[in-house]
Structure formats: structure tokens, C-alpha cells
């Protein structure tokens, strides 16, 4: 049924949001830090 599919979809979305967003944030922060380190090393 449609409502079952919608419920399933929203649960999946919630799981994706809870699991992936922190991972993505971490990855972005790591990339940012790496860039900063590279700039610092080049500046020496």
C-alpha cells in the first residue's frame, strides 16, 4: 500500500540522515584540516 511505502521511505530517510550526515560532516572537516595543513606547510 502507498502509506506503507511512505512510512518505509521516511524511515530510510531518517536512517540515512542520522548515519550519513555526521559522517559527511566529519569528512568535510578532515578535508578542511588537510587543506589548512597543506597551506601551512607550503607557507614555511
From TrEMBL:
GO terms for cellular component: HAUS complex; spindle microtubule. GO terms for biological process: spindle assembly. Pfam families: HAUS5. InterPro entries: AUG5_plant, HAUS5. PANTHER family: AUGMIN SUBUNIT 5. This is Uncharacterized protein. It comes from Nymphaea colorata (pocket water lily).
Amino acid at each position: 500500500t502507498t502509506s506503507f511505502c511512505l512510512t518505509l521511505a521516511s524511515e530510510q530517510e531518517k536512517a540515512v540522515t542520522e548515519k550519513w550526515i555526521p559522517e559527511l560532516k566529519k569528512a568535510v572537516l578532515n578535508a578542511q584540516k588537510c587543506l589548512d595543513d597543506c597551506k601551512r606547510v607550503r607557507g614555511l
